[in-house]
Amino acid sequence: MTLWTSSEAIAATGGTSATPWKATGVSIDTRTLQAGDMFVALKDVRDGHDFVAQALANGAACALVSRIPEGVPADAPLLVVDDVLTGLEALGRAARARTSARVIGVTGSVGKTSTKEMLRTALTGQGKIHAAEKSYNNHWGVPLTLARMPKNTDFAVIEIGMNHAGEIAPLAKMARPHVAVITIVAPAHLEAFASVEDIAREKAAIFDGLEDGGTAIINADLPTSGLLLSLAPSNRQTFGETDGADWHLLEATSGDASTVCRASHNGDALLFKLGAPGRHFAMNGLACLAAASAAGADLGRAAVALGDWAPPSGRGQRRFIHLDAQMPEQGIDLFDDAYNANPASVGAALDVLAAAMPPAPAGRRVAILGDMKELGPTETALHAGFATHPAMAEIQQVHCIGPLMKHLYEALPTSKQGLWAATSAELADSPLALVKAGDVVMAKGSLSMKMALIVDAITNLGQSVADN
């Protein structure tokens, strides 16, 4: 199906093209580009213009550029604009303007991607759904997600993130959501903010983009909930365990690979299930159902469909590593939560690990933790503070990675101290020093800490299967 014609893209961007073309998708990476895609020559670590010739050779329908790249003929299918990012933003705005989709915007310090994926699952069967396949939530990710949105979309879920003040409002105004969700406000990116309250104000900037009559969905359990409510429009709903929340979580019962949730809304009982253990997932699921309902979806169908959701790799996915094909019970239970970390998400992951049963009677609960980045002047205390986290009472060993996590390592009782290393690569070389058969283990750290190396090293000890 055609996503963009040259005439539509020219009208949207004010650019020029020497030849007509039709694009069926939008790509920023030649490694994943599909034949028929428009290639967007963004400049990041490398200048995308250096890859235009390769993109066209790989079947790109056209390329969005700010100049004719060297080695590319002037009559090639190029959409030439003054600035590539500005051109992509214009395509995003035009795509948003031409659709009648109900748009849900999701932001928060933790849980943006999980909630986005829950919404994708919950809305299944109720219309054509559009959402980014990855965490495309920044200054280029949001316009890219919008530019990829087909005209006939019924529901769109747009994830909106930030690292600094002033980033969310322009992205929200571009997305123009009918429903805006704030999952949680927590200490994250404190290098760029003076306080958690300032982070809350930035998250609340998503309301600046709400369509007239749009609905704000707000977590009622936060220290900053009152501030968020004061910044929200009058059409707002709350979710959480707090008495009086519009979407009230009454109970979340976690098993080894699922969470069964009991809630109420407007006096009606609500029961739903999620394919992962953890109260934080229960909260995201409740926010998802509140948003789906506010967007006009059938709540009952959404609650049933949500049962098919399970976390993707790196975001709490649980798998069992068989170590001996002749003894299938011999293995390691692994929580892959390696994608990113801040104090709220690490605390939630420790809670899940503490509640998990090791697969063997002599097995241990083992945490492998990497540095949490961008926490500002309180970073030392925030890392060391996990030594007294309630979940630590149920965790037998903690391995730490990075100079910041060394503060936690030194604060731990000697009995819980595992190994410390400056980098993930150092520990990944010796996975058998980290875990043993019968253990349940969780790996988590900021993306730059490359905790996936640890996950891969443990996985490669045997044969991995998803827990169900």
Structural overview:
- The structure is a single chain.
- This protein has 468 residues and is an alpha/beta fold.
- It folds into three domains: 4-83, MurE/MurF, N-terminal domain (Udp-n-acetylmuramoylalanyl-d-glutamate--2,6- Diaminopimelate Ligase, Chain: A, domain 1, 3-Layer(aba) Sandwich); 99-308, Mur-like, catalytic domain (UDP-N-acetylmuramoyl-L-alanine:D-glutamate ligase), CATH 3.40.1190; 317-466, Protein-Tyrosine Phosphatase, Chain A (Alpha-Beta Complex), CATH 3.90.190.
- The chain is 28% helix and 22% strand.
- The chain contains 15 helices and 22 strands.
- It has helices at residues 6-13, 52-57, 84-98, 112-122, 141-147, 168-175, 196-204, 225-231, 279-294, 299-305, 343-355, 379-384, 405-411, 424-428, 452-459, and strands at 4-5, 22-23, 25-27, 37-40, 62-65, 78-80, 102-107, 129-131, 155-159, 179-182, 215-219, 236-240, 247-254, 259-265, 268-274, 317-322, 331-336, 365-370, 397-401, 417-421, 440-444, 463-466.
- The strands form four sheets. A nine-stranded mixed beta sheet has the order 8-9-7-10-11-12-13-14-15, sandwiched between helices. Strands 20-19-18-21-17-16-22 form a seven-stranded mixed beta sheet, with helices on both faces. It has a four-stranded parallel beta sheet with strand order 3-4-5-6.
- A hairpin with a 2-residue loop joins strand 14 and strand 15.
- It is globular, with a radius of gyration of 23 Å.
- The model has no long low-confidence stretch (mean pLDDT 93).
